[in-house]
Amino acid sequence: MREIVFATTNNAKIEEIERVLTRFGFTVTHAKLEIEEPYGLGLEAIAKAKALNAHQLLGKPLAAIDTGFYINSLDGYPGDHVGDAIKKGLDWIISSVEGKDRTCSYKNCLAYMDETLKEPVVFESELVGTISDAPKGTLKPLWCPIHRIFVPEGKDKTLAEIAETDEGFIAWREERYYHSTSYKLANWLLSHSS
Q1: Contact predicate 110/48, CB 8 Å
Q2: According to the model, what pLDDT value does residue 35 have?
Q3: Regarding predicted confidence, which is higher, 101 or 144?
Q4: pLDDT of residue 62
Q5: Tell me: the pLDDT tens digits for 81-122?
Q6: Whole-angstrom Cα distance, residue 114 to residue 8?
Q7: How many whole angstroms separate alpha carbon 181 and alpha carbon 110?
Q8: Which of 66, 98, 128, 132 is the most exposed, having the fewest neighbouring CB atoms within 10 Å of its CB?
Q9: CB distance 9 to 33 below 8 Å
Q10: What is the DSSP-derived secondary structure letter of residue 90?
Q11: Which tops the pLDDT comparison, 133 or 193?
Q12: Bridge partners of 108?
């Protein structure tokens, strides 16, 4: 089995990447690193910087991820500044789109780095949806408060509500499996292994 280190302080992110990569025969090791992120450069640049910095620290094949949330009627705010919007609160986000277009997207950018690469390889995923009229659902087993107001396209519940039951969460994960950054990484690794 090939080991991949995942650099994050978020246990839920580890569970998600591990769930996918172990299906492909990889083992995932958690490195709880506080990695300085460049601010405002976009998801790809942030994920690459995190992967590069963590690889320089550990010297092992590793992945790092960054997430963005883009609200169309707010010109893409908060984008890669999700933490800023979370600090303002979910109610603030909801009131900011009152009477406006509520469409939004949730993007993940996963960067992988190992000793054979000159720079990290990037894998992206995007989930389109709308903002609910109120926070709904609980965060367990999810990791981002935005999940309580994000209604995926084609669904009538927030991501947090979908994940409240084991059956709902498992079905959701399987539905998104082939679109996940973890799946894309696993396929890339298999196609580039010697």
Answers
A1: no
A2: 74
A3: 101
A4: 92
A5: 888 898 999 999 999 999 999 999 989 999 999 999 999 999
A6: 17
A7: 6
A8: 98
A9: yes
A10: H
A11: 133
A12: 67, 125
- Residue 105: CB atoms within 10 Å: 16
pTM of the model as a whole: 0.87
- Non-local (6+) Cβ contacts of 109 within 8 A are 43, 44, 46, 47, 65, 66, 67, 68, 122, 123, 124, 181
Query: Is the distance from CB of 137 to CB of 147 less than 8 angstroms?
Result: yes
Amino acid of residue 53 = N
Residue 194 banded pLDDT, cuts 50, 70, 90:
low
Residue type at position 10: N
Lookup result for tokens 């963005």: 68
Q: Which two tokens stand for residue 34?
A: 């506080």
Measure the CA–CA gap between 23 and 171, rounded to whole angstroms.
Answer: 17
Name every residue whose Cβ is closer than 8 Å to that of residue 163 and which is 6 or more positions away in sequence: 137, 140, 141, 142, 147, 169, 172
**Rg over CA atoms, the chain:** 17
Phi-psi region of 51 (alpha: psi -120 to 50; beta: other; left: phi over 0): alpha
CB within 8 Å of 30: residues ≥ 6 apart: 5, 6, 8, 11, 14
Q: Which helix (H) or strand (E) holds 142?
A: none
Average confidence (pLDDT) over 11-22: 82
What pLDDT is attached to residue 141?
57
